[in-house]
Amino acid sequence: MTDAILKNYAKLVAVSGVNVQKGQPIIIAADISAAKFARLVQEACFDAGASDVFMNWRDEVSARTHYLKAADEIFDQFPDWLVQRAKHYDDKGVGYVMIYSDNPDNLNGVDPDRIKRFAKISREKTTETAALRMSNKLRWTICAVPSPSWAKKIFPDLDECAAVEKLWERILKASRADGPDPIAEWKAHRESFVKRVDYLNEAQFDKLRFKNSLGTDLVLGMPKEHIWKGGGSVDKDGLYFHPNMPTEEIYTAPDANRADGKVVASLPLSYQGSLIDGIEIDFKDGKAVSYKAKEGDAVLKSIVEMDEGSARLGEVALVPNASPINQMKTLFYNTLYDENASCHLALGKAYPTSIVGGAEMSLEELAKRGVNHSLTHVDFMFGTEDMCIWGIDADGNETLIFENGEYKF
């Protein structure tokens, strides 16, 4: 991959993704396997006016060793200095850049209970930072670059170099970063969502019904004054940013107390280094009352049973079969990409900005409006080429809004 293309991608992440402002500090979180690209993003952030760019390096190989060999009590602890560091930067209006390059199989064979316990304590300790991002009071973006292990997972028949190169091509195409002016292309992409977002927000359906031949037959209640979004987000100062690069979804939060029926996942879910495949979940009155997976069942159980809210839904997203990512016919084993190839749901926390005035509401106020709260937010895919979706108004009248995987409006 040429340096010019990589620099364009890095600039896209800095300018259109997190939308760096003059004098703003930035935190870049990346695995050491993504060091080359992370440094390009660092440089692009400085060029865009950042006052400081803090590099928060990870190492997935060390992380696996830690989960396998650390003393058991460690997984119920989270250092206070990490909380203080986050608050230090949050108080300065930091922007967050997360660069994924994870091996989907990195934590296979690790005790799921250790993963669950550490995920729970870390999220409990970083609730304030997460809330600032999910309410768009801080800008953030997620992007990805290939690692050899991830590339070989997707393209096992290719040698390592060829697999990495092919994954680079897929990522850049999906992220609209392979052309001469990615920033202009993203502006046009953002504007392409407006018509459908406006239609759904004006319709204010009381319920949505999903049905396909895979076995999904699910009815979701919708909160009053819910807000559909797509293409990007606006922060508290009115600054536009793109949390997910790529993005093809239009999403909102369903009512956490009104989900009934069955959902069958259409793609595997890669979750914290473990693979979960063949997910089936039954909901009643908003709660997952039974759940299983053909592979990774214990990991699925740890997600659903993280806390009270993790057994309920915090997001519903519509993605057409015509999505350019879906048309690649590539299973990425990475939610950032796979969720933009398929309609999806999220177990756990809802974005407060999914209802009118939600960003300023307390957790209690949000709960009264049916907006879910949890320590976790885990997307899984359930869209298919024969997915049909009906919008149902308060009088029970149905409107077909999705037929055979495509929008009807």
Describe this structure in words.
The chain has 409 residues and is an alpha+beta fold. Helix content is 33%, strand content 23%. The protein contains 14 helices and 21 strands. The strands form 5 sheets. Strands 15-14-11-6-5-19-20-21 form an 8-stranded antiparallel sheet. A hairpin with a 5-residue loop joins strand 8 and strand 9 (240-241). The longest helix is centred in the first third of the chain and has 15 residues, at 3-17. The radius of gyration is 20 Å and the shape is globular. The mean pLDDT is 96.
Keywords:
409 residues, alpha+beta, 8-stranded antiparallel beta sheet, 5-stranded antiparallel beta sheet
The biggest beta sheet reads:
8 strands, antiparallel
Radius of gyration: 20 Å
Strand order of the largest sheet: 15-14-11-6-5-19-20-21
Tally of DSSP helical segments: 14
Task: Look at the helices and sheets and give the structural class.
Answer: alpha+beta
N-to-C terminal Cα separation, in Å?
39 Å
- Report the mean per-residue pLDDT as an integer: 96
Number of strands: 21
Give the proportion of residues in helices. Answer: 25-40%
The shape is globular
What are the segments in which pLDDT stays under 50 over at least 5 consecutive residues?
Answer: none
Strand content: 15-25%
